Amino acid sequence: MAAEGAQAAGSGRASGDPAALVAAAESVAAGWVLELSCCCLCRHFAEGRAAEFRRWRAVAEAVINGFSKIATHQKKTVYLCQLLIRIADGKRLECNFEKDPRISPLESALSFWTLLEREESKLDKLHEDIRRLIQIQAVAVHMEKGYFKEAAEVLERLFADSESDKPLRVKLATVIKSKDPYIPLLQSFNYDLLISKVKSYIERFMKENEKNFLLQAAMEQVESKGLEAVVLRNITVNANEEEENNLETTQRFTEEQPSTTNELPEDATKSIRRLRSKRKCRASNVLQSLNSLQNVEELGDTQTCGRRRQPWTLEEDKKLKSGVREFGVGNWAKILVHGDFNNRTSVMLKDRWRTLSKIK
């Protein structure tokens, strides 16, 4: 895909027109960013990282909206980004992706899945499974919220011109009439299964598009600058914060449930225990993996400073304050990477900020 974009830049160079050359270069760069955004969306969707997914979703949407016309080699990438964004918001019926406010996120997702299928050289059972699951869940999410009239309207829109899916349409019509969102059909083809199937498709897509120009360039930069330790720390912090949020959500949910006793439901108790156990295991593994890195960092700091504290300069204080304004208190690893500090560590940045705060 990047090669095709490079050909466009070559045509601009051949024309000798500076404006055409810049426009072609912008188009190539936008294509690279699109490919990187799609790669990150796929990875974070597959790993269930909602916060990271939302960040890259904003990037992908900005790039896609900036295209006046989608190039042939970019269509599949654009369609997949749009599909994942809608699947992620599939249960949020208040979200609107189409001009018609009645169209639910999953109905919109189905339209992009149809476009994706047209770009495939061969359709198999996975494609069929995903299509069927999107159709079923487009009805099911309305029923779960008690919107049975709207569920019937969704059914009419989904199968308006389709005779091949008539058996499924008849089954779903029967389900809607029953007004039971927990009927076996809906439980057998639930939302978790849809997510699982989409992840399988993502895995296949990533294997076919494993080379990503920007990601490879960034990896080379990380390796050359020795930033692996910093990146690992950021991942660790984000993972711990996510586990903490998940645990708090589970506890809050169980506390809000009506109960005749003060004991937690058995399933909720097991869930909390699993989360706590997972956090302990992760913390142990992280400490072990970071131990050698921290020792190297401490040794380097000792050798550089000659076992003496290195005074902070006014310029370093300014960079520290600027970094806090940009990234926020606590993001010391990011501030360290983006600031030009003289043999400092993230711990030293944290301690210096505490000192500056006391001075204020």
Between the first and last Cα atoms, what is the distance in angstroms? 53 Å
Radius of gyration: 26 Å
As a percent range, the share of helical residues equals over 70%
Low-pLDDT parts are 6-14, 252-265, 283-307
Would you report the number of β strands? 0
Strand content: under 5%
- Spell out the helices and strands N to C: HHHHHHHHHHHHHHHH
Principal-axis shape equals: elongated
- Main β-sheet, in a few words? none
Q: Give the number of helices.
A: 16
**Classification by helices and strands:** mainly alpha
Q: What's the pLDDT, averaged over the residues?
A: 78
Protein topology:
Blueprint: H1 2-15, H2 18-47, H3 50-66, H4 75-88, H5 105-119, H6 125-144, H7 148-158, H8 166-178, H9 184-188, H10 191-208, H11 213-225, H12 228-256, H13 266-305, H14 314-327, H15 332-338, H16 346-359
Describe this structure in words.
With 360 residues, the protein is an all-alpha fold. The chain is built from 16 helices and no strands. It has helices at residues 2-15, 18-47, 50-66, 75-88, 105-119, 125-144, 148-158, 166-178, 184-188, 191-208, 213-225, 228-256, 266-305, 314-327, 332-338, 346-359. The longest helix has 40 residues, at 266-305. The protein is elongated. The relative contact order is 0.06.
